[in-house]
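Render DUF3108 domain-containing protein in 3D.
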Amino acid sequence: MRKHILTLILIAFVFGNGFSQTIDYLDKSAFKAGETIKYKLKYGFFTAAEATIQVLATDVKLNNKPTYHLLVQGQTSGSFDVFYKVRNRYDSYIDKDNYSPYLYTENVRENKYTRNDKARFYQNEKKVVATKGTFKSPVNQTFDLVSAYYFTRNLDLKGIKVGDKIVLNYFLDDEVTPLTIEYFGKEIIKTNLGQIACLKFSPSIRPGRVFKKDSRLFLWISDDANRIPVKAQAEVLVGSINMEISSASGLVKPLNTQ
């Protein structure tokens, strides 16, 4: 395991329902302040880590505009916490109207590795000013991985068809990278909260420190007003990982379970 393992696994999986910025927004937001969703990441039969994603109310204004404070936290658990302790935190402040990010920070603690970074997004200027410098973007809507997930929850996906592939740009590891996402259709996923009707996606992933060259990451997003991540599954260099929802509160609508 190397740096950014929770960036690649705990955050990357919730980013999978991304779609083109040209698609219209929904009439009402799919999330609100107070939303809290928790997940368990399993390596084989063992629970290796836990993650929490939250929408927090805040009085912070950026560019004189009100914002949402998005928070993702991940940590190892059980025996994994003894041998490889992880305590990661990712914060993103986004515009309340168009959900684009203004500010993103990382506080990464993975065993002996530590990292504290931040990125300020200047969308009109197509640039990101980060800890290690200024980076240009080819588009005027660039995301961090946290804001990308919340942005895409509010896109109207009525016209999506099996096999459609869409590209979204995000900033990570001091570069702006395109992400390609393919839609695979609808499935019913069994969880400890009940059976949930989902939309299935597969985003592109970069092989290397976690994923194999031919690995596929599959994601299941609730097919309801909330559009929350329900499950993720991927092969890694050794074995496979699964991430499953364990609880959800503060949703815009009650989760549609069977």
